[in-house]
Design goal:
single chain, 401 residues, alpha+beta, SH3 type barrels, Immunoglobulin-like, Ribosomal Protein S8, Chain: A, domain 1, 3 domains, six-stranded antiparallel sheet, 10 helices, 27% helix
Length: 401
């Protein structure tokens, strides 16, 4: 028996979900998602998956799932309200001065979920969430799932294959009451499609759960799962096709032709003797063995370093050694944007809360490009002009989720 298993009491008709393993003999079961009771293991039996396949879900199970989702949504709304976070529906009604709409109205207003690979957390009971991967694409996806433990250590949890338009089984179960102790998840995705002309690079995603984004991520009807869940997209940046090296066609056309021996250059007697000795050694097996090719040792992975709190994007700060004479405006802008994307990705990966970019006022081209990229990034909470008394309008403060 494991957390998340649906069980039936042997002494009655009640069904419930195992929410905690209290001891070797005792488990905690949520009955009808209204209350939890300790039950001896010998007094319950797991509802087999074959039973669901053969007879479908029981009415009690369906009602229990609906009740769990509704109760969990209420708990999430209360927690969000307590934390001062407005959900999409509550923010809209608050702006109009109306009372919050019921759950059905929230479903009607929900935007459709775009194609992609998602991390979904569904309510097994009001306090217990099951973790799933949802592949809402037309490709097969190979995945690995791990968690970041205390001290930055990695622990692998699961690996597998998700067919197109499918969802994984429950990969783990978490308690809402332990939200502050949830680890960061590290997911790797490798898309694959039979007969596709392209191979794709690995997609890496680090998902850290924060109250500000978690309680507003609820979707009433998640594709494939066809039920309510907290949804997080893992492939916001699409997989990039692998650039294959050009096929080898033998000797390059511009390679110098091998020098042909001239008729006048005949081998000398000493050269003939050396050649004969070499051939004889090879035929008799006495030739010295060629050294085996040794593969170079792989370079150790570089540790991820957090960027400074203030990043200066001026050209003289990015290239202090010089050597930038003659660069066009577009080349300079490209260097600045590459430095911006590198530092922003490292800030997100190292869980920084904010970062300041110093771009100068000038003609405003760099500032516009930065604001355009920031407005499209879902990991950004907000951005604004920073430290006007020091930089005027030449710096932007970025607050990360």
């Amino acid at each position: 028996m494991n957390i998340g298993d649906r069980v039936r009491l042997l002494t009655g008709r009640e069904e419930g979900i195992i929410t905690r393993l209290l001891s070797d003999e005792l488990v905690e079961v949520a009955i009808d998602n209204d209350f939890t009771i300790p039950v001896l293991r010998r007094e319950i039996v797991v509802v087999a998956a074959e039973e669901t396949k053969a007879f479908g879900k029981s009415t009690a199970a369906v009602e229990s799932e609906k009740k769990a989702a509704a109760s969990g949504a209420d708990m999430a709304a209360k927690a969000a309200k307590k934390a001062g976070i407005a959900t999409d529906a509550s923010a809209a009604t608050a702006a109009k001065g109306e009372s919050p709409a019921p759950l059905k109205a929230d479903k009607a207003q929900a935007a459709p979920v775009q194609k992609g690979v998602y991390l979904a957390l569904t309510h097994q009971s009001p306090e217990l969430l099951a973790l799933h991967l949802v592949n809402h694409t037309d490709r097969t996806v190979l995945f690995t799932l791990g968690e970041e433990k205390a001290g930055g250590q990695y622990r692998a949890l699961k690996a597998g294959t998700l067919e197109a338009k499918s969802a994984s089984e429950a990969l783990g179960h978490w308690h809402l009451k332990d939200f502050d102790q949830w680890p960061a998840l590290l997911v790797q995705l490798l898309p694959f499609q039979f007969n596709s002309p392209s191979a794709f690079e690995l997609v890496n995603k680090r998902q850290q759960f924060k109250a500000a984004s978690f309680y507003t991520s609820r979707q009433p009807n998640v594709p494939v799962l066809q039920r309510e869940a907290y949804l997080f997209q893992l492939d916001e940046k699409p997989a990039v096709p692998v650039a294959l090296p050009p096929a080898e066609t033998g000797q390059p056309t511009n390679a110098p032709a091998a020098a042909k021996p001239q008729s006048g250059n005949k081998p000398q007697p000493n050269d003939k003797q050396q050649l004969a000795d070499k051939l004889k050694a090879q035929l008799t097996g006495n030739a010295p063995a060629k050294p085996a090719a040794v593969a170079p040792a792989p370079e150790p992975a570089k540790a991820l370093v957090a960027p400074p709190h203030e990043v200066d994007l001026h050209l003289e700060a990015l290239q202090p050694e010089g050597g930038t004479e003659g660069l066009s405006n577009s080349a300079i802008l490209k260097l600045q944007l590459e430095a911006f994307e590198d530092t922003l990705s490292r800030a997100l990966a190292t869980n920084m809360h904010e970062i300041v970019y110093i771009h100068g006022s000038g003609n405003g081209t760099l500032r516009k490009e930065l604001h355009k990229l920031l407005s499209r990034n879902r990991d950004i909470k907000f951005f604004e002009d920073s430290m006007k008394e020091k930089f005027g309008y030449g710096a932007t403060l970025v607050r990360l989720k």
